[in-house]
What does this fold into?
Amino acid sequence: MEEQDDEDKVKIASDFIVHAPPGEFNEVFNDVRVLLGNDQLLKEGASGAFGDYNEQQFTPATVEGSDDQCLITENGRLGDNKYLDPRTGQSFSFDHLRKSTTDVEAADVDDCDGFRSAFEEAVTQYTKDHYMKGACSVYGAGDEVTSCIEHHKFQPNNFWNGRWRSQWTFNKSTGAITGVLKVQVHYYEDGNGRRRQDNNRRSNQRQDFEADDQDAFCSIATTVGGEAYPNKNFPIPLVEMLLAMNVYPDDTNQDLGAVCVSFCDAGDSSCTPDADAQA
It folds into this structure.
C-alpha cells in the first residue's frame, strides 16, 4: 500500500478531530495522536482543527472577572487564538487543547447603542431559567445582535454524551431574525449510535416555530432505534426532544428555545420520556 504524504495525513487527522462527538475531544485527539505517530506534525498541521472544533461546539470558557462563562465562537474570534467576551468587555487568549484562558485585557464591544447589552441581559436570564448548566454570549455588529446558547450533558460512565446549541441573529432595523438549532447525541454502549439534527429558521415577522421544530427534533426519536438501526438487539435509547420556542416573542414572553432529552430503552414499557428526562 502506498504511503500517504504528510499533507494527506494531516487532512485525515483534522477531519477526525473536527467531527469528534461532544465531550469526546480528548479521546479522539489521543487516538489520532497515536495513529499519526508524529506530535510535531500534529501540532503544526492540525492545530487549526482544534480551534474549529471549539468554535463549532460553542465550547464554554471561564474568564476572569465574570461569574458567567462565555462561549468560544466564530462571532467572538479576534485572531491569533484570541476571543471576545462581550459580557465583561474583555479579550483573552484561549488554549484550544487545555480549554484555558490567559492574557485577559480590556476590549472594545459594539453595544449597538445599548441594544446588545439589553438583549444580553434577557438572554442570560433565559439561559439560567431553562438550562441547568447553560452558557451564552451575545455579540453586536452594527444593527445586528447575535446570541449563542450552549448546554451539554456528558455521561461517559453511562456511555452517552449530548449537546444543544442555538444561534439567533436579530436585525433591529429590519426586524428580521435568523437562527439555527443543533442537537447532537452520541450513545456508544455495545455499539456506536450518533445523531445530529440541525434546523434553520428565518422570519421577518412574529411567528411561533414550536410545532415545526418539535416535529423536526422528535424525528430523532423515530430514527434512533428505528429504521436507522434495524438490529433490535442493539439497545439504542429513546431520545425524546421536547421543544418550547417562541421566536421574536411578545413583550412578556422571551422564550428562545428549550430542549429536554430523555435517555431510556425504547423497547422498555417503563420508559417514560417525561419522567426519565435529563436536563
About this structure: The chain is about 25% helix and 30% strand. The longest strand covers residues 144-155.
